[in-house]
Write a structure and sequence with these properties.
Elements (H helix, E strand, L loop, with lengths): L3 E4 L2 E4 H11 L7 H38 L7 H10 L19 H4 L3 E7 L3 H9 L2 E3 H6 L18 H18 L12 E5 L2 E6 L2 E4 L6 E5 L7 E6 L2 E7 L13 E7 L3 E5 L9 H16 L3 E6 L2 E6 L4 E4 L5 E4 L4 E5 L6 E7 L4 E3 H17 L13 E5 L5 H18 L6 E7 L2 H4 L2 H7 L4 E6 L1 H11 L16 H16 L7 E4 L8 H7 L2 H4 L4 E4 L2 H13 L2 H8 L8 H4 L12 H25 L4 E4 L5 E4 L1 H16 L5 H18 L16 H11 L10 H14 L6
Parallel strand pairs: 3-12, 3-24, 12-17, 17-20, 20-21, 21-22, 22-23, 23-24
Antiparallel strand pairs: 1-2, 2-18, 4-11, 5-6, 6-7, 8-9, 9-10, 10-11, 13-14, 15-16, 18-19, 25-26
Length: about 725
């Protein structure tokens, strides 16, 4: 039973109330009674409008279902677009404009680079992500398949000198490509020193300098033998570290022991798809970690083999300049926080009738209060140097929902005494109605928008659900080759640039899903900066370090300037082309494989979500390849199965059989986990039943979302788990 504290019309869970009173509010100058009174007023004022927007979603989907079930869609063409305009699925596009967002940190406005997204409930992940601004290139190459792992280069229990030499060689090639010398190569360097005019490189008896002397900006240690040298290229910094007593430096002619690259310049701390936050206790854990990040005090206890240590946020890096001054480089990524979608409610606060209040309102209020600690007091500016708070808002359907989010942030600013537009918004372009109206969505937030991105996973889930009755969809692997996908990825950049994002806001791209496949990532993910995107999501600090190389290879800001002239005309008809497949071309084996693949993924994800409260992790696919799974991937899989059931591509008996067979596969994949609870042979545990419901009720779930089902089963599971002794 949750103990609650009455605050006017609200009934606040004691755990959340204590957190706000004892941890979040002190030091902000805010009055506790005034805060809760204002919160109650906001809930009362904003909930009717929010409910109307959610009802509009229902009405639009109902109209789509009628249209699609009447077999109109195969005709498509102009009639389909006219229909979508008639139900205000597509709205008039505004005249050309440019955003007016001000006070945006350079990491977002003008410093392209990798972006991490991590579950905020995990303090270790959050600390690692914040610290991932800087990463060892040597470690990232040595410890992944970015360097071949067979033969003489294979990783071994101890240090493999041959592999190490290969890593060092690749590091030198990187330096030659990005920081070339006037004569010779970094491979021939025997020492580095700081001269009157900049960096001097010795190659035995020969002396040379950088072709671009301005790339050198600072150093640590004596000029004749620095311990660190800082270079910059495309706005990203690279640090050469020297130590001839180090295992690596001792083998290096110049004494270089590492090349440290500026990697995750921004990171999104997630309260949404990557977390399993189902009650007040979970929410407070996330809020407390966000507060620690804003105060600069977050720590995490780490145990590795037989050693343990406390991980803390990195301090800024201070270097001397040739003129005798100092230059300071930020030690941590610029942090943003992602709230839940408009449709979610939370039992952390109830109204006077006992109803859960909108969770997005609670997220806005509490994370902004925590954010005040970065705006005021002794640690002001630890995150944002310009005094802004950055919120990413997911799962919005069209410009009216964006406008509502902006009104929520405006009311939050008003309550907390903040200047207008202190809280910036990131628009997740991941729902079909948003991408069809992206320019209008940006216009609705034109004075505070700081981020847009594409999210293939959720966007595909909505693509399937919104046209569920139109016909059987193509198989999951074919989705990225569909016309809508190409237009979606292209127009996101094009519209962002036409609205003045260059030098003012981020344009992002989606996640690399295979965290162990770094060689493949290095080969493919350069496409994101080449598309004109200023950031792209990566699944780990190591991936951020390697993806940073792409932003040295591509001058994104210059590329954006080229892409913006002339403005590209978008192809709305292509964006709205529904990805219908032809089941007559699929064999029974192909149908079975598609269903097994999707159901195995659902089961593998649900068993960790429901039983362990893990919202995002590496989950082996049906072939055993670890993939990053979150609710977005689960949404796609459940919608494909629901769509094929709807159109008779497979039947219920086949799906039920797959659920049981794939449960055995997932059980085997997790057999080495000591606390793992097998789903077979009883098939009656919370995790299995949750996965089954995700499949069988997918067509009825609002917008095809998975969180309502997962949350309910996780709550059931938590109630069944004996409480830990104090």
């Amino acid at each position: 039973m949750i103990t609650r504290v009455a605050e006017g019309e609200l009934r606040v869970a004691r755990e959340l109330h204590d957190f706000v009173r004892l941890e979040a509010l002190p030091g902000t100058g805010l009055d506790e009674r005034g805060f809760w009174s204002g919160a109650a007023e906001m809930v009362g004022d904003l909930r009717p409008g929010l409910n109307a927007l959610l009802q509009e979603r229902v009405a639009i989907q109902a109209a789509l279902d009628v249209y699609n079930s009447d077999q109109n869609l195969p005709k498509q063409g102009g009639g389909y677009e006219a229909f979508l305009r008639s139900i205000e699925y597509v709205v008039p596009e505004p005249e050309d404009f440019e955003i007016t967002t001000t006070r945006v940190d350079q990491e977002i406005s003008s410093q392209p680079g990798p972006q991490l997204v991590v579950p905020l409930l995990n303090a270790r992940f959050a600390t690692n992500a914040a610290n991932a601004r800087w990463g060892s290139l040597y470690d990232a190459l040595y410890g992944t398949d970015a360097v071949p792992e067979s033969g003489r280069l294979a990783r071994s229990r101890g240090y493999n000198p041959a592999r190490g030499d290969e890593v060092i060689g690749r590091g030198r090639r990187f330096l030659d490509e990005i920081f070339p010398l006037t004569v010779g190569s970094h491979r021939s360097a025997t020492s580095y020193e700081v001269g009157a005019a900049g960096l001097v490189v010795h190659q035995g008896e020969e002396v040379t300098v950088l072709q671009r002397p301005e790339a050198f900006i600072g150093y640590i240690g004596p000029r004749e033998g620095p311990s660190s040298v800082v270079l910059v290229h495309h706005g990203l910094h690279v640090i050469l570290e020297f130590d001839r007593g180090h295992q690596i430096g001792a083998r290096d002619a110049a004494g270089i022991c590492d090349i440290v690259v500026e990697a995750a310049v921004t990171a999104i701390m997630d309260l949404e798809d990557s977390v399993a936050a189902v009650d007040a206790s979970d929410k407070v854990r996330g809020y407390r970690n966000w507060l620690g990040l804003m105060q600069g005090t977050l720590t995490a206890e780490v145990v590795k083999k037989d050693a343990s240590f406390t991980r803390r946020l990195h301090a800024d890096r201070v270097f001397r300049t040739t003129s005798g001054g100092v230059t300071t480089l930020k030690g941590t990524a610029l942090l943003m926080v992602r709230h839940v979608g408009h449709h979610m409610t939370t039992d952390s606060i109830l109204d006077s009738q006992g109803n859960e209040v909108p969770e997005g309102i609670v997220d806005a209020l509490i994370t902004a209060v925590c954010g005040l600690h970065d705006l005021r007091g002794p640690r002001a500016g630890s995150n944002s140097r310009v005094g802004s708070i950055y919120v990413v808002k997911p799962k919005m359907h069209g410009p009216k929902e964006v406008a509502f989010a902006c009104e929520l942030l405006r009311r939050t600013e008003q309550l907390l005494g903040l200047e207008a537009c202190t809280i910036k918004i990131g628009i997740m372009d991941e729902e079909r109605r948003t991408s069809a109206n992206l320019k209008a969505c940006i216009h609705a937030a034109s004075d505070r928008v700081a981020f847009i991105n594409t999210g293939f996973l959720d966007r595909t889930g909505d693509e399937i659900h919104s046209s569920l009755l139109a016909g059987p969809m193509v198989r999951k692997a074919a989705m990225k080759r569909q016309p809508w996908m190409r237009e979606y990825e292209t127009q996101n950049v094009s519209i962002g640039l036409s609205c003045g994002f260059r030098g003012r806001a981020q344009i992002g791209k989606g996640m690399w899903p295979a965290p162990d496949n770094m060689a493949e990532m290095l080969e493919q993910k350069v496409s994101h900066p080449l598309s004109g995107a200023s950031c792209a999501w990566v699944p780990s600090p190591t991936a951020a370090t390697l993806h940073a190389l792409h932003y040295h290879a591509v001058d994104v800001l210059t590329h954006q300037a080229e892409l913006a002239r002339p403005s590209r005309h978008r192809n709305l008809a292509q964006l709205l082309t529904v990805p219908l497949g032809n089941p007559d071309q699929w064999t029974s084996e192909q149908r079975s494989a598609e269903i097994d693949n999707n159901i195995q993924g659902i089961l593998g994800y649900a068993v960790r979500w429901v039983n362990d409260g893990v919202g995002c992790s590496k989950v082996p696919d049906i072939d055993g390849t670890p993939l990053m799974e979150d609710r977005a991937t689960c949404r796609i899989s459940s919608q494909i199965v629901a769509n094929w059931l709807q159109h008779g591509v497979v039947d219920t008996e086949q799906v039920e059989d797959s659920l049981r067979r794939m449960a055995l596969v997932v059980d085997a994949q997790n057999a080495d986990q000591p606390a793992y609870q097998p789903m077979a042979p009883s098939y009656d545990g919370s995790a299995f039943l949750a996965a089954r419901e995700l499949v069988m009720s997918a067509a009825e779930q609002p917008c095809g979302y998975t969180e309502l089902v997962l949350r309910r089963w996780r709550r059931i599971q938590k109630r069944a788990i004996p409480a830990k002794p104090p």
